[in-house]
Design brief:
By secondary structure, this protein is an alpha/beta fold. The chain has helices at residues 14-28, 45-50, 62-74, 85-90, 93-102, 130-135, 148-159, 211-217, 236-243, 261-267, 292-298, 303-310, and strands at residues 32-36, 55-57, 78-84, 107-112, 140-143, 164-168, 185-188, 203-207, 224-228, 248-256, 274-280. It has two domains: 14-168, Rossmann fold (3-Layer(aba) Sandwich); 185-313, 3-Layer(aba) Sandwich (Rossmann fold), CATH 3.40.50.920. The chain is globular, with a radius of gyration of 20 Å. It comes from Isoptericola haloaureus. This is Transketolase. Residues 12-177 form the Transketolase-like pyrimidine-binding domain.
């Protein structure tokens, strides 16, 4: 996948790639503005100099940041709003609901921090419920890219639209980019065996940066693996096509477990489906520090944890859930 609008290399992390794309985005879209609350301001100083008045730092005032974005949108501007996920979604949630949603104006929200990228910063910087909260508001599209190239593609696509979009950046990434067309794509198939019908093998849907973990966790399991970078609204047609008539499905998301449950249930409402949702558990709050990998392992989102959950979909257990895979996280 080529990088639109910039020569920035795919070796950049998602956050750095986002910053690198803003200059060409502002060049290409005269109606675009960037609204910050301190986070990112220093790294965008040159962009602000090149585009006077179009990079606005409101200070540590996240509610005001969304209000300013809503005001800009009401005048016909297209704001790109950026900070850590809990300060972009949870703290100003009422402003998302009123200043953007109730006014029915568009904006592009771009978060960093994911669920626990800033694990050493403590619970204040963690937001595993962010996607569920945004998806609860009408009219939003949620993108969860799995690679820096996907970040670039999604940003350039949304800059040319008028709706409300949330782009969730993560420190975790897949080795290679995948399509960003909003659809569910089959990544790995299996031979279902003689006489087996379509969809006979269980399907594992990986969202965004969970794909490489899912591929490693299921390498020797008789399951198919699919991918999407846009979990909301979910590609119901694509999911139904891949799931088959009697689906066994696991949905692996890097945020609150079951966030996509309602959309999956609606897509498969007429089928006797067995569904396992894998994500950050709703009844667990980690109250100690550690690395992002430590948090992933504690929440069952590492290779071993995902494997244990997916194994419940297959007819027999394959191998040992702890067969040395705990440390096999993708780089």
């Amino acid at each position: 996948m080529s990088a639109p609008g910039t020569s920035a290399g795919p070796d950049l992390d998602m956050r750095t790639r986002f910053y690198a794309e803003l200059d060409p985005l502002l060049d290409a879209h005269p109606d675009l503005d960037v609204v910050l609350a301190v986070i990112g301001a220093a790294r965008l100083a040159r962009v602000a100099d090149r585009h006077p008045g179009r990079v606005v730092d409101v200070g540590i005032r996240e509610q005001a940041m969304i209000g300013v974005a809503g005001g800009l949108a009401l005048t016909g501007r297209r704001p790109v709003v950026h900070t850590y996920a809990p300060f972009l979604v949870e703290r100003p949630y009422e402003q998302l609901k009123i200043s953007l949603g109730h006014q029915d104006v568009g904006a592009i929200l771009v978060s960093i921090g994911a669920s626990f990228d800033a694990s050493a910063a403590g619970r204040t910087h963690q937001a595993p419920a962010d996607v569920a909260l945004v998806a609860a508001l009408p009219g939003w599209t949620v993108h969860v890219p799995g690679h820096p190239d996907e970040v670039a593609a999604l940003l350039h696509a949304e800059a040319g639209r008028s709706g409300r979009a949330y782009v969730r950046l993560s420190g975790q990434r897949n080795e290679r980019p995948r399509p960003t067309d909003g659809r569910v794509h089959l990544v790995r198939d299996v031979a279902d065996g003689p006489g087996a019908g379509a969809g006979a093998a269980p399907l594992v849907l990986a969202v965004g940066p969970m794909l490489d973990t899912v591929l490693a966790a299921t390498a020797d399991l008789p399951v198919r693996v699919a991918y999407t970078a846009t979990p909301h609204p979910l590609d119901a047609v694509g999911l139904r096509r891949l799931a088959g008539s009697t689906p066994a499905l696991a949905v692996v998301e890097p945020y609150l477990e079951g966030t996509s449950a309602a959309a999956v249930a609606a897509a498969l409402a007429d089928r006797p489906a067995r569904v396992v949702h894998v994500g950050v558990p709703r009844d667990v709050e980690l109250r100690r520090y550690g690395s992002p990998d430590d948090h992933a392992a504690a929440h069952g989102l590492d290779v071993a944890g995902v494997r244990r959950r997916v194994e419940t979909l297959v007819a027999r257990r394959v191998g040992s859930p702890s067969s040395g895979r705990k440390s096999e996280l993708p780089t």
